[in-house]
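Example for tutorial group B:
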């Protein structure tokens, strides 16, 4: 058998030949400005000196701020009593918000319903006035309750089963510019257990009953400022007087006698 001998190419040798050809080309070709790299220039990659110290200081400052913020967050959560069900005495339930204890509202409160627990009363306090407004769908005020140092002011009608003053204090119902009306289908009971009942008016006070009588049931009924009519006849009065009624309902006094001394056409009735 005959064969031919050959040589296998070496990758390292080929790269060396290419590098030698490139160097010869750059050194022998005239007009080229390429220079061979020099080994004396060494570039260091990284942060050294004062820059490195400033970077470490900045990272340390960020860690301190992170720790302080985390500590403040934990403190706020602990002080405000944050929990999955609410915050402090405020609890979020299926029926709404439940607030226990005393609370202070700095701005208006809008709610559909406010009620206390079954075993306690609802108390509203303010350094000035407590105002409750009722509005319609257009935002107009249809009713207002204003409670202040002088009492409660109602701008519209009020429906309540009981009107009562505090112990040892007077109960006063007043309408400065309008009329005051009390209506009830079964009657109105005004009672003072340990004091007087006074009704003052600048004009007239009318007591009217459509289907009944006006009953004054007391041991003593005093009408101190009734006018005295003319004497109907001669006789000794003995300090006794008769109450007479004019056709228009006006009352006056007449000196009592054996019979009635009331005169239909007395000067008081004119």
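The residue assignment follows.
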């Amino acid at each position: 058998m005959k064969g031919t001998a050959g040589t296998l190419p070496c990758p390292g040798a080929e790269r060396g030949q290419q590098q030698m050809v490139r160097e010869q080309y750059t050194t022998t070709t005239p007009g080229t400005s390429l220079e061979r790299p020099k080994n004396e220039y060494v570039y260091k990659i990284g942060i050294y000196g004062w820059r490195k110290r400033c970077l470490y200081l900045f990272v340390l400052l960020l860690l301190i701020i992170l720790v302080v913020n985390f500590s403040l967050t934990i403190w706020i959560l602990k002080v405000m009593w944050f929990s999955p069900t609410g915050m402090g005495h405020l609890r979020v339930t299926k029926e709404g918000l439940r607030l226990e204890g005393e609370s202070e509202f700095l701005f208006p409160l809008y709610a559909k319903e406010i009620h206390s627990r079954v075993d306690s009363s609802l108390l509203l306090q303010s350094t000035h006035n407590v105002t409750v407004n009722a509005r319609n769908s257009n935002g107009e005020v249809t009713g207002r309750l204003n409670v202040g140092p002088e009492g409660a002011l109602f701008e519209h009608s009020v429906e309540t089963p009981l009107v009562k003053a505090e112990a040892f204090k007077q109960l006063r119902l007043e309408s400065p510019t309008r009329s005051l009306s009390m209506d009830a289908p079964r009657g109105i009971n005004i009672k003072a257990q340990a004091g007087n009942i006074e009704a003052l008016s600048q004009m007239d006070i009318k007591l009217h009953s459509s289907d009944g009588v006006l009953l004054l049931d007391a041991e003593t009924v005093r009408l101190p400022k009734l006018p005295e009519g003319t004497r109907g006849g001669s006789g000794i009065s003995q300090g006794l007087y008769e109450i007479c009624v004019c056709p228009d309902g006006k009352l006056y006094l007449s000196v009592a006698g054996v019979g009635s001394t009331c005169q239909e056409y007395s000067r008081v009735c004119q």
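The chain has two helices and nine strands. Compare this with the pattern of hydrophobic and polar residues in the output above.
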